[in-house]
UniProtKB/TrEMBL annotation:
Pfam families: WD40 (PF00400). It comes from the Eukaryota. SUPFAM superfamilies: WD40 repeat-like (SSF50978). GO terms for cellular component: catalytic step 2 spliceosome; precatalytic spliceosome; Prp19 complex. Belongs to the WD repeat PRL1/PRL2 family. Coiled coil: none annotated. Residues 69-119 are annotated as: Disordered. It comes from Aromia moschata. One of its GO terms (biological process) is mRNA splicing, via spliceosome. This is Pleiotropic regulator 1. Keywords: Repeat, WD repeat. WD repeats lie at residues 147-188, 189-230, 231-272, 273-314.
Amino acid sequence: MFNFEVYSSLCDDAFNSFNIKTLSTCKQQWQHIKKSRMEEVQRHSVHTLVFRSLKRSHDMFLANQGVLPPVDETAEKNQESHQSQRLLRPGTAETEQPPSNEGAVVPYTDNAATSRNTSNQLANIIKKAPTMPKPKWHPPWKLYRVIAGHLGWVRCVAVEPGNEWFATGAADRIIKIWDLASGQLKVSLTGHVSTVRGLAVSARHPYLFSCGEDRQVKCWDLEYNKVIRHYHGHLSAVYSLALHPTIDVLLTAGRDSTARVWDMRTKANIHTLTGHTHTVSTVMAQASEPQVITGSHDCTIRLWDLAAGKSICTLTNHKKSVQRPSLPSYTLFFELCFQ
């Protein structure tokens, strides 16, 4: 027969034993958490105390603690101006009387030195501010026309000797010929595979010469608008070229630190002018000696003997790269433009 009282007592004993085990487990976990938290709090407190102690020691033994504060220049100037205004004010010296200190020891003062300082201050105040010089008159140059058509930077321009047209070369690898009077595009010449860096128009032949960063030097026949000659020899980009005014000689210069002299018709490399230690940025030719002049990024200018192919002299003392020399037609001297 089922005994309900015995069953209920057994259930109560099992429940009580379960609760005791659960409570003991929870108590152990809580003690562990409390202990870990206390350790963290104590560790943090120790670190804080150490940091505060170090900071206090640093503040106490700071190196520049005894140094006086810097002088305020603005306050000094204001004080000097105030004193000078008091000196300039009429009747100030007569109306204001110093306080009487009977029995006090008055120090000796040099009246001459005081008067000299006062006169210097007055001279500085009365002196007028310097006036700006008037700008000199210059011709009223105005922008005449803006010509657009290239798709890249325009790196070189050459004007035809008869002033009828001019040519431009750009980073879009195209040479364009424009009418000088109207500004209209006449011809576009393609053939370079990189930026066109130099152009020259022959005054005695219907030729246009071009050079570029593709190491190519080309001769264009303007009657047929096509390339008729190539000049090979440069090992890197060609940055500048020039034509001799009296003989059929072409000069080129480039990034390989050399300038080359070419026979215009036979394409023969007559001379290779070596001596620069950096890129030769420009080359010029003239009928009188020195017939060849080069400027380089090594901050030097060299004058060359065209017949011998040797350097005559080297001009130095420039601080930056020589970019664009110019030769007036009436003198052997030339001006220099720098980067």
